[in-house]
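Subject line: Sequence and fold of a protein, written as structure tokens
Area: Proteins and the way their chains fold up in space.
Start of record: The labelled sequence and token lines come straight after this line.
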Amino acid sequence: MSKFIKNSSLYVITVLILNASSFILLPLYTRLLTPADYGNIYLMQTIATIIGLISSVQIQASLSRYYYEYKEDFSKVKKMYSSIVIFTFYSTSIIYGLIFIFNKYIFFFLHIKFFPYMFIVLLASYLAIFYELILSLLYVEEKAKKISITSIILGIGSILMTAVLVINSKDKLLAFLTASLITAIMQFILFIWYSRPYFKFEKKLFNMKEFFGYSIQRLPMSLSSWIVTFADRIMVYGYIGANENGVYSLGYKLGQMPEMLYTSINKAYVPYVFDKYKNPSEENNKKIIYIAQYLFSIYIVLVFGILVFSKDVVFLLDERFKQSLGIMMIILVAYMLSGLKLVFHCPMDYKKEYGKIKSIIWISSAFINVILNVFLIPRYGIYGAAYSTLISYLVTLPPILYYSNKAMKFKYNYKAMFKVLAVSLIYSLLIILKISFVGLFIKCILSLLYLYVVLRLNDLQIKDLKNAMGFK
């Protein structure tokens, strides 16, 4: 079986286990934590995300890109990784140190004390940056088993620890954040342990100018992606308060569920197609086309499956969070578009000259997102923020498809993709069914039929995929 299939399957299983565990506890959390608590949690995490992104300049992207140039010489891989770690340590330590010193002037808008709440969130985000470095290296080395086992043990341990602390503490918010800090400390310990074979301290940093240049070129895209994904929460918090931000953020999190699976598959997909790009041939082109068709169907089925059962999901939550259903539906559609971009975007990442174009696309999307939020949130509240996100993802899809095709031409089977989408739209009509045992039963039966139809529509492509990748 192909390494791509093995690795992506392991990553998907890991995500499913962790999200299933987290989802089981979600109804409990919505009863223990208030919408305002959730609003403050998501706001602080949003701020920590942008600080981590800027301070590290997303330098781990260089690991994913330049590993393939040095993988034949392990000493150069060690030099690359060591240089990036040292750079990250200095850049992040300086920025986080200044933030801790001047916190009174930076976080004046928070409706919550900096210490201990925001302090804990920032410290956790600082430690987590280093864990992302070693994960990026392990991903490109395709060590799926190690990553999956570590993630499952750490993730389930974190989920259980959070539940225990929240249940047994008076300050539920502090307990939730403390659990995240303990998890980050464990991640940092794993970073040190897994980095041992790759780390070699040298006074002179290896090729750091090129690594930094590549990351800086991609930074506007990462910042724009952050704006599209997170800026709405800051604006909701500022315009209509922490309570509404909590409802919106929870709905957003539920709608964002497919993204976790996309990201997991993408960790295996990118190294696989980059390797094929490096060795172009008719056979490799067929493999890329077949896998794109395969992933397109998976992403579409996942989104529409969650959409059909979205009422049943929100029904399990506390009454205070019921309004998150509408947000969940809108964000699901937005992340369907995001998943489709991931199927086709790789040529733009591989061809370095298209990095600036991709950045311009995301900057434009971020600008549109902010403008829409300014106009729509005051008028339509949290639904205005959700529609702003949907429109922002929608406007980026056509240029991504256009320039990816311009970077590298592949004859994708768009006809088969359209059929899968059409069948999925018909299947989505099941969402009109009311919440009941009979309705749930009907959904389950027709969902199995839907899967069967999608498999039949893709029967030829799946057979070709197996043959192309050496399946017996």
Q: What stands out?
A: The first helix runs from residue 3 to 32.
